Amino acid sequence: MFRTVFSAAAEAQHNPLIPGVADLIWSFVCFIVLLVFFWKKILPSVQQNLDARAEVIEGGIKKAEIAQAEAAAALEKYTEQLAEARAEAGTIREQARQDGVKILNELKEQAAAEAARVTASASAQIEAERQSALVSLRAEVGSLAIDLASGVIGQSLTDDKKAASLVDQFLADLEKSEETAK
After folding, report:
1. Is the dihedral of CA 60, 66, 67, 68 positive or negative?
2. Angstrom distance (rounded) from CA 121 to CA 103
3. How would residue 5 be classed by pLDDT, with cut points 50, 70 and 90?
4. Nearest-angstrom CA–CA distance, 92 and 102
5. What is the pLDDT of residue 1?
6. DSSP one-letter string for 70-98
7. Alpha carbon distances (Å) from 135 to 44, 139, 141, 157
8. Backbone dihedral region of 154: left (phi > 0), alpha (psi from -120 to 50 degrees) or beta?
9. What is the distance between the alpha carbons of residues 138 and 146, in angstroms, rounded to a whole number?
10. What is the pLDDT of residues 57-87, one digit of tens each?
11. How would you label 47-67 residue by residue, b for 16+ Cβ within 10 Å and e otherwise?
12. Per-residue CA distances from 11 to 15, 24, 42 (Å)
């Protein structure tokens, strides 16, 4: 049947769109040869290149995952160190605050002790000066009293024992009169 169709077509006018049988067979053989050549030679090398590229990409992805895991671990470690440093800084600040309070209290105690010492020294000095002034004043008042008594009595009170007892009695009477006035 194909022969009749092809022979009828050959007898009839030759159509350029329909190839000849020989051309179809040779085209089919060339297609098969090229198909086998591509299948055996080119397709394996292309597949090998694609596999190598896939391995490189997978290796890059694994390296990126490893680097990302390392970065996450480093970030976590850094965060822990930062938290430890903040805690240590807080401890140091608190210790410094306590040391400051302690030093301040010690300085206050030292200042109070120094003030007490200066006050005691000043009190002792004032008491000594008061005693000295009192002794000096007694001697002065005594000599004035003796001079005054000599002028009133009209006799000389040059006897020291008698003059001293008179002065002492006069000062004792003077002190008693001051106490009763208060």
Report:
1. positive
2. 26
3. low
4. 15
5. 56
6. HHHHHHHHHHHHHHHHHHHHHHHHHHHHH
7. 132, 6, 10, 21
8. left
9. 12
10. 998 899 999 999 999 999 999 999 999 999 9
11. eeeeeeeeeeeeeeeeeeeee
12. 11, 19, 44
CA dihedral 36, 42, 45, 47 (to 10 degrees): -70
CA pair distance 179, 142, nearest whole angstrom: 20
Two structure tokens written together for 24: 């179809």
Tokens matching residue 53: 């590229």
Which amino acid type is present at position 132? S
Query: Residue 135 is inside which H or E element, if any?
Result: helix 43-153
The DSSP 8-state label assigned to residue 155 in this structure reads S
What count of other Cβ atoms lies within 10 Å of the Cβ of residue 146?
20
DSSP state of 20: P
Q: 157: how many CB neighbours lie within 10 A of its CB?
A: 16
Close Cβ partners of 138 (under 8 Å, ≥ 6 residues apart)? 167, 171
**153 neighbors 174 (Cβ within 8 angstroms):** no
Q: How far apart are CA 105 and CA 111, in angstroms?
A: 10
pTM: 0.39
